[in-house]
Amino acid sequence: MRVSPITTTEMHMATKLSVKQTLFLGLTLLMGLAALYWILMETGALTVLTDKQALREWVDRLGVWGPLAIIFMMMTAIVMSPIPSGPIAMVAGALYGPVWGTAYVVIGAEAGALLAFCIARLLGYEVMQRWPRTRPIFNWLGKERSQTGLMLIVFASRLVPFLSFDAVSYAAGITPLSFWRFLIATLAGVIPTAYLIVMFGEVLITADSRGLTIALILISGITLLPLLAKRLWARQP
Q1: CA dist 142 to 3, 48, 81, 103, 196, Å?
Q2: pLDDT reported for residue 110
Q3: Lowest-pLDDT range, 69-73, 83-87, 124-128?
Q4: Do 113 and 165 form a contact (C-beta atoms < 8 A)?
Q5: For the purposes of burial, counting CB atoms within 10 Å of the CB of 92, is it exposed (0-12), middle (13-18) or buried (19 or more)?
Q6: Would the pTM count as exceeding 0.85?
Q7: pLDDT score for 204
Q8: Phi and psi for 44 in degrees, rounded to 5?
Q9: How many other CB atoms are found less than 10 A from the CB of residue 153?
Q10: Burial, 156: exposed, middle or buried (Cβ in 10 Å; 0-12, 13-18, 19+)?
Q11: What is the pLDDT of residue 14?
């Protein structure tokens, strides 16, 4: 039986169908996130997520389900920008200690970052790549040296609590940075930062806004010290 080759028209229709499917998936996802955010607002859960003391009491009442709640909330906070992840990490440290608290926070943050990366890669990468003005940039970023540079940028951004974790994840998704490089860079950067925030969880929960800001600045400085030391060492003759 002879199989006829695919015509240009059929290929164009397949591409259009793929674009339509992508748009439908994107709209469905946005509507789902918007619905989830509305539910959190209407039920008062969003208020709890931003109140460190109330969040601690709620997670503590969950008992054995508390760690799963921490992981899920971290994932949600990364994917949905309006939800802060800082209070969740502090509560994890106060309730579960530096080791297990860090583990739960890292699992949730890594999973949320990968989900945000995949969403951006699925919905935005193809569009940016087809845009004539960005095509030369994408070709340059796709080179091995540029891939390493993007990986270092992602890693460094994870060491600074003030930088938006979710924004970096979404932005990385529309670049040619490979999935595995993003995974490794995020994991390597989030572990020390999460550990420091979790370790001082009890102190950070009771701190006022000024004290919290100072603490986060100190955490940023401590996590960035290895990079600064390496940079200074490289400049020595």
Answers
A1: 37, 43, 28, 33, 34
A2: 95
A3: 124-128
A4: yes
A5: buried
A6: no
A7: 63
A8: 85, 0
A9: 16
A10: middle
A11: 38
The two structure tokens encoding residue 55:
């969040």
Q: What is the pLDDT of residues 3-51, one digit of tens each?
A: 344 344 433 433 444 656 766 776 777 787 778 777 877 777 777 777 8
In 10 A of CB 96, how many CB atoms?
20
> Which of 137, 138, 125, 139 lies closest to 174 in space, CA to CA?
125
Q: How many CB atoms within 10 Å of residue 84?
A: 12
Query: 3-class DSSP state for residue 62?
Result: coil
Q: Where are the domains of the chain?
A: 17-235
Phi-psi sector, 97: left (phi>0), alpha (psi -120 to 50), beta:
left
- Using alpha carbons only, what angle is made at residue 156 by residues 87 and 150, rounded to the nearest 5 degrees? 125
Residue 152 tokens read as 């270092």
Quote the tokens at residue 124: 């935005």
